[in-house]
Amino acid sequence: MPETADTARAAATAADGAPLLAVSGLTGWYGESHVLHGMEFDVREGEVVTLLGRNGAGKTTTLKAIMGILAQRKGAIVYEGQELIKLPARAIARLGIAYCPEERGIFASLSVEENLMLPPRVRPGGLSLEQIYALFPNLEERRASQGTKLSGGEQQMLAIGRILRTGAKLLLLDEPTEGLAPVIVQQIGHTIKRLKQQGFTIVLVEQNFRFAASVADRHYVVEQGKVIDTIPNDDIEANIEKLHAYLGV
Amino acid sequence: MFELLGIPPQALFGQLLLGLINGSFYALLSLGLAVIFGLLNIINFTHGAQYMMGAFVAWMLLHYLGIGYWWALVIVPVAVGLTGIVLERLMISRLYHLDHLYGLLLTFGLALIIQGLFRNQYGISGEAYSIPSQLVGAQNLGFMFLPNYRLWVIAVSAAVCLGTWFVIEKTRLGAYLRAATENPVLVGAFGINVPRLVTLTYGFGVGLAALAGVLAAPIYSVNPNMGADLIIVVFAVVVIGGMGSILGAIVTGFGLGLIEGLTRVFYPEGSAVVIFVIMAIVLLVKPAGLFGRTA
């Protein structure tokens, strides 16, 4: 196997030891319903990994648990060597983790620019407003519009753009392509690749594995609240049958 | 023209002025209620008692410590606002995960307790609080006399309402507030301390009520029931404006004060109920209120 930049970095982080994010034995509930049954996975710095799985497998819940907005959670979530499981969401955000929810969470009472400026800077090194507008020119044109007056694709760009300003290093993106036109999906794919180049680490929840395969380094297959398989993106073609079976497509 | 209608202009302008004064208090109080309801989802029934506390604390500052009106304008909203913060931390914050009704019951109970304590201590006859010497007197406008203090009340109320509107609609802090009103969980996940924002908002709303109380002290007698009488009307104003709407609270506050004044001129018997009649009509036609967002 040729020594690519990726494998070199993987070797380097492996030498350092700890991954950026390590999730182990993570269980979680919504009230009475037990959703996560011992999630195990980790994410190295600079990687894009996906959580693939069917509806209701626990992918979204996993992101919510990492972000601290799932009230009932147990297990271990270690980010940069720090245990997050007992921290409130605002403290987790302050450590440099940012969340882009599936429903996008654009605020109707805020303009596009107010939406962009809302999340406070938690660390140095975030993108400037100009850089975000360069990434998503549509948003600049509509900076004064009410946030929810944007099209679905523009709202998704706003939801992603909004968390790039904060200096967060780890981005949790929940189905950013859901319900969007192919050309917009492509644009979001380009954006994710550019963010990876800029050094962001990304955990992506996806149902669309074609899209996932176009941006990710590794895939964790989630079923019934557990990771049941790990597939490096380079091996995805060899595992296509297995993936179809997992995802039921 | 006025003679044709059989209404002397003095009466008309006099009632319009009175309406504007009442409107100033409606606006200040409903603004506080709207801010609190927007973020906390609590219908703050203690608001009237907190307004009364504002007037009483101003009176106490003067009576016991010799601190006058101008200092009271600053000290009282802060002091009463702090009692609101304590209340929110100790009691109200425990109810956010429950139905609106529990917050309403708690704050209603607190209002009764606070009013009872003041009634016990000071009776119901009321205490006098005089107009500060700088604002004694009146302007002769030709067609009527405009007392300086009333003009001051209208000006302060309008300025405070405008300032509050500006902060909420145009600043970064206001953006946090609006966003947290919509989706507190997500705002928290961005690293903003939402519980602290909620506490400070309650304190601010209570401070507005207390400020209204200080402004009212020289006009109305300072007595333990002054808030209970007013708050029912203010709730009607909030419903008409639209629960939680900042602009709605301000505009309907002043507007309904004026309408009430006009009613007193043209159909005095209806002046006590006109606001409630309008409330019923608005609820029938536009249940979210005139400025309410239909969710």
What would the keywords be for this entry?
heterodimer, A: 249 residues, alpha/beta, Rossmann fold, six-stranded mixed beta sheet, 10 strands, 26% strand, disordered N terminus, B: 295 residues, mainly alpha, two-stranded antiparallel ribbon, 12 helices, globular
Task: Kindly describe this structure.
The complex is a heterodimer of chains A (249) and B (295). By secondary structure, chain A is of the alpha/beta class. Chain A has one domain: 3-Layer(aba) Sandwich (Rossmann fold), CATH 3.40.50.300. Chain A has ten helices and ten strands. In chain A, 46% of the residues are buried. Chain B has twelve helices and two strands. Chain B has helices spanning 2-5, 9-40, 47-65, 69-90, 100-122, 148-170, 172-182, 184-189, 194-216, 226-241, 246-266, 274-285; strands at 138-140, 145-147. Chain B has a two-stranded antiparallel ribbon with strand order 1-2. In chain B, a hairpin with a 4-residue loop joins strand 1 (138-140) and strand 2. In chain B, helix 2 packs antiparallel against helix 9. The termini of chain B are far apart. Classes of the chains: A alpha/beta (249), B mainly alpha (295).
Secondary structure layout:
The complex is a heterodimer of chains A (249) and B (295).
Chain A (H helix, E strand, L loop, with lengths): L4 H12 L4 E10 L2 E11 L4 E5 L6 H9 L4 E8 L2 E2 L5 H6 L2 E4 L11 H6 L11 H7 L1 H5 L10 H11 L7 E5 L7 H16 L3 E6 L2 H7 L2 E6 L2 E7 L7 H8 L2
Parallel strand pairs in A: 3-8, 3-9, 6-7, 7-8
Antiparallel strand pairs in A: 1-2, 1-4, 4-5, 9-10
Chain B lengths: L1 H4 L3 H32 L6 H19 L3 H22 L9 H23 L15 E3 L4 E3 H23 L1 H11 L1 H6 L4 H23 L9 H16 L4 H21 L7 H12 L10
Antiparallel strand pairs in B: 1-2
What is the CATH superfamily classification of chain A? P-loop containing nucleotide triphosphate hydrolases
Structural class of chain B, by secondary structure, is mainly alpha
Number of helices of chain A: 10
SSE series of chain A? HEEEHEEHEHHHHEHEHEEH
Count of structural domains of chain B: 1
Residue share in helices of chain A? Answer: 25-40%
Shape of chain B: globular
Please identify the structural class of chain A as seen in this structure: alpha/beta
Question: Quick one: how many beta strands of chain B?
Answer: 2
- Assembly annotation: heterodimer
CATH topology assignment of chain A: Rossmann fold
